[in-house]
C-alpha cells in the first residue's frame, strides 16, 4: 500500500455490515446464498473452478495441503522479509543512491530460491531492480494476464524496534504468523505469485495464455523508479490495452459479517489526488503599525471559507460507489426490506436514486468520502518573529478527487471561493498559471499551485458487466473461499470498491483490479505500516491456491483475446 492510503476507503459501509464476533456463526450449516444472491442490483457470478485443468489443479491442491509445502511457503516468505528492501521518500534515482543496493540482494535471493523460474521464464530487469517475468503462452491471440506486486517495504522506525513482538526483519514463523515488515504489504503477494508459477512449472503446466509478473521497487514512495519505468517497458512490449486484466494489491475480504457472508472487495477505481499550496504574501514591516489583517489572518479566512464549503457529491449509476452501495444493501445483514426496495428502485428511478444517496450520506461517513472530493488542510506555516509582520503565510491542502470530478474542477472550486476573499482584501489572485484575478499589485497577492506537481486525475472505472474479467476474478475468489475449508460462511458476495495506486498501469488494460486475497483476520497490524506487521501463515498458502486458480481459469477462457 502506498504511504498515503486513506484507511477509510474500505469495502463497504460500516453501518450496513457492523463487524461482529465470528464465533456466533460457528454452528451455521454450509448453505448457499439466499435469493438475494440473484439481486439484479448486485449480480453475483457463480464460483469458477478450473475444468480443463481440473486434474492439474487437483494435484496442486493436494500438494498445497502438505506440511512440506506449507513449511516451504513460510520459509520463503520469511527469507524474503529478511532482506530489508526499504524505500524512502527522499531516494535519488537508481544508480545515484546506495540505498537501492539492497534490491540487488533481493534479486539474488529470488534467483537462488526460484531457479526453475529463472531458467524457464524470460526475466527482464527494468531500471536495474524492477522485475518483469514473462511466461510465453502457446496462443498468441489471447491477451496476457498481468499480476503485480512490489518489492519494497515501508522503513521501520528505529525507535520502535523494541516494540515488535519479533524483530521487524526476522521473518519469524511462530506456528500461526509470519512476522516482519513486508509480511503482508506486499511480500506475501510477491512470494505467493512466484511460488504459484514455480509450482505450475514443476507440474508441467504449459500456458496457452501468456503470464506476466511485474514487481516495482518504490511503491511506498514515488513509484517513478519502479512501476513508472516498468509501465513504459510493458506498454512498449505488449502495447496499449495489451493485457486481458491486471491484478495488483488491494483490500481483501471481510469475514466478520454477522449473517455469515464473506464480502470480497476488489477495487475497480481510484480517487484522484491533488495537493494545493496556498501562499498569501503582503509587505512586511514592524508590527508596531500593523495592518488590520496580516497574511496569516488572511490565510485563515481562506481556510475557513474552504472548510465551510464541501465539494459536491455525485451518485451516478455507472460509478463505483453505486455498485458498492447496491451490494452492501442487497446482502448486508442490517438492511431493512424497505431499504432494499429503495435500492432496487434506484436502478431506474431518479427520485429513488436521490433518496438512496441522501440516506447513505446521512448514515455512513464512508459514503460521504466515496461520493465527494475530500479536502484536508494538512500543513500551515508563516511568520518568523513575534514583532515582525509575516511576509508570507502558506497552507497545503490535500484533495482526494471523486470519480465524477477532475483536477480542473477542484481548481475551479478553489478559485471561486478564494477570489471572493481576495477581492475583500483587495489582493490579486494567481491560480494555477491562469490569468490573474483582481490585479491589485504584486506586493499583496495570493498564489495557488500544485504543491508538489503530483496532481492526478481519478482513474478510469473498470467495467463490471457480466462475462468480463470482473466475473473471472469474482468466480475465482468465490471458488477459493468456498473450497478453502477455513470458513463456515453462508456465502460469498463480491462487492466492487475503491482501491489505490495503480496509476502507472492505466494504459495497459481497462480491467484493473486492486485485490489481495486475504481476510481481515489474516493480517496482524497495530495499524497500517506500523509495528508488528505479520500475516497468517495459512493465508499465504491460500493466496498461492487463489493465484493458481486464477491463472488456470484465465488460461481456460477464450475471453479477452
Ligand atoms: C465450523 O463449524 C463446525 C461445527 O459446526 C466447527 O467444528 C468448526 O470448527 C467450524 N469451523 C470454523 C473455521 O469456524
Ligand atoms: C486596491 O489595490 C490597488 C493596488 O495596490 C490600489 O490602487 C487600490 O486603490 C486598492 N483599492 C482599494 C479599494 O483599496
Ligand atoms: C498513457 O498514455 C498517454 C497517451 O499516450 C501518455 O501521455 C501517458 O504518459 C501514458 N501514461 C503512463 C502512465 O504511461
TrEMBL record:
Zn(2+) 2 binds at residues 150, 185, 248. PROSITE patterns: ARGE_DAPE_CPG2_1 (PS00758), ARGE_DAPE_CPG2_2 (PS00759). Zn(2+) 1 binds at residues 185, 220, 529. The keyword Nucleus does not apply. It comes from Mycena maculata. InterPro entries: ArgE/DapE_CS, Bact_exopeptidase_dim_dom, Pept_M20_carboxypep, Pept_M20A, Peptidase_M20, Peptidase_M20_dimer. GO terms for molecular function: metal ion binding; metallocarboxypeptidase activity. Residues 1-23 form the signal peptide. GO terms for biological process: proteolysis involved in protein catabolic process. GO terms for cellular component: fungal-type vacuole lumen. Residues 268-422 form the Peptidase M20 dimerisation domain. This is Peptidase M20 dimerisation domain-containing protein. The active site is at residues 152, 219. The keyword Zinc applies. Keywords: Hydrolase, Metal-binding, Protease, Signal, Zinc. Belongs to the peptidase M20A family. PANTHER family: N-FATTY-ACYL-AMINO ACID SYNTHASE/HYDROLASE PM20D1 (PTHR45962), N-FATTY-ACYL-AMINO ACID SYNTHASE_HYDROLASE PM20D1 (PTHR45962:SF1).
Amino acid at each position: 500500500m502506498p504511504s498515503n492510503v486513506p484507511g477509510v476507503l474500505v469495502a463497504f459501509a460500516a453501518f450496513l455490515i457492523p463487524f461482529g464476533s465470528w464465533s456466533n456463526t460457528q454452528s451455521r450449516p454450509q448453505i448457499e446464498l439466499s435469493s438475494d444472491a440473484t439481486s439484479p442490483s448486485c449480480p453475483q457470478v457463480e464460483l469458477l473452478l478450473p475444468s480443463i485443468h481440473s486434474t492439474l489443479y487437483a494435484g496442486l491442491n493436494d500438494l498445497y495441503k502438505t506440511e512440506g509445502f506449507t513449511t516451504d511457503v513460510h520459509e520463503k516468505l520469511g527469507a524474503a522479509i529478511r532482506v530489508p528492501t526499504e524505500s524512502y521518500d527522499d531516494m535519488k534515482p537508481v544508480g545515484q543512491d546506495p540505498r537501492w543496493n539492497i534490491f540487488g540482494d533481493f534479486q539474488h535471493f529470488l534467483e537462488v530460491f526460484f531457479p526453475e523460474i529463472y531458467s524457464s521464464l524470460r526475466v527482464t530487469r527494468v531500471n536495474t531492480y524492477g522485475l518483469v517475468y514473462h511466461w510465453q503462452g502457446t496462443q498468441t491471440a489471447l491477451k496476457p494476464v498481468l499480476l503485480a506486486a512490489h518489492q519494497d517495504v515501508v522503513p521501520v522506525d528505529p525507535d520502535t524496534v523494541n516494540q515488535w513482538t519479533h524483530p521487524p526483519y526476522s521473518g519469524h514463523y511462530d506456528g500461526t504468523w509470519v512476522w516482519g515488515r513486508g509480511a503482508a504489504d506486499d511480500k506475501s503477494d510477491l512470494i505467493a505469485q512466484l511460488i504459484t508459477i514455480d509450482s505450475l512449472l514443476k507440474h508441467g503446466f504449459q500456458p496457452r495464455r501468456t503470464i506476466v509478473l511485474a514487481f516495482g521497487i518504490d511503491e511506498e514512495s514515488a513509484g517513478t523508479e519502479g512501476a513508472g519505468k516498468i509501465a513504459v517497458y510493458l506498454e512498449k512490449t505488449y502495447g496499449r490495452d495489451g493485457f486481458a486484466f491486471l491484478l495488483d494489491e488491494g483490500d481483501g475480504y471481510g469475514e466478520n459479517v454477522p449473517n455469515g457472508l464473506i464480502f470480497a472487495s476488489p477495487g475497480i477505481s481510484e480517487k484522484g489526488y491533488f495537493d494545493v499550496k496556498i501562499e498569501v504574501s503582503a509587505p512586511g514591516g514592524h508590527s508596531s503599525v500593523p495592518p488590520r489583517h496580516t497574511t496569516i489572518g488572511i490565510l485563515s479566512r481562506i481556510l475557513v471559507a474552504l472548510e465551510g464549503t464541501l465539494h459536491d457529491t455525485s451518485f451516478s449509476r455507472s460509478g463505483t460507489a453505486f455498485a458498492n452501495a447496491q451490494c452492501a444493501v442487497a446482502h448486508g445483514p442490517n438492511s431493512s426490506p424497505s431499504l432494499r426496495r429503495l435500492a432496487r428502485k434506484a436502478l431506474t428511478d431518479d427520485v429513488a436514486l436521490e433518496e438512496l444517496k441522501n440516506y447513505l450520506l446521512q448514515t455512513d461517513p464512508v459514503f460521504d468520502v466515496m461520493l465527494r472530493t475530500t479536502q484536508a488542510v494538512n500543513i500551515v506555516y508563516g511568520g518568523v518573529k513575534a514583532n515582525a509582520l509575516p511576509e508570507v503565510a502558506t497552507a497545503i491542502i490535500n484533495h482526494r478527487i471523486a470519480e465524477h470530478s477532475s483536477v480542473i474542477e477542484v481548481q475551479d472550486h478553489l478559485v471561486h471561493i478564494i477570489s471572493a476573499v481576495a477581492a475583500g482584501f483587495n489582493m490579486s489572485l494567481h491560480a494555477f498559471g491562469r490569468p490573474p484575478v483582481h490585479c491589485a499589485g504584486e506586493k499583496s497577492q495570493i498564489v495557488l499551485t500544485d504543491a508538489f506537481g503530483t496532481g492526478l486525475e481519478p482513474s478510469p472505472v473498470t467495467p463490471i458487466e457480466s462475462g468480463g474479467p470482473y466475473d473471472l476474478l469474482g468466480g475465482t475468489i468465490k471458488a477459493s473461499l468456498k473450497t478453502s475449508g477455513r470458513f463456515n460462511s453462508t456465502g460469498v458476495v463480491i462487492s466492487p470498491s475503491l482501491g489505490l495506486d495503480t496509476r502507472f498501469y492505466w494504459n495497459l488494460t481497462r480491467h484493473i483490479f486492486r485485490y489481495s486475497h486475504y481476510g481481515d483476520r489474516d493480517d496482524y497490524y497495530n495499524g497500517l505500516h506500523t509495528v508488528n506487521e505479520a500475516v497468517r501463515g495459512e493465508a499465504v498458502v491460500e493466496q498461492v491456491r487463489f493465484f493458481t486458480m486464477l491463472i488456470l481459469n484465465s488460461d481456460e477462457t477464450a475471453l479477452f483475446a
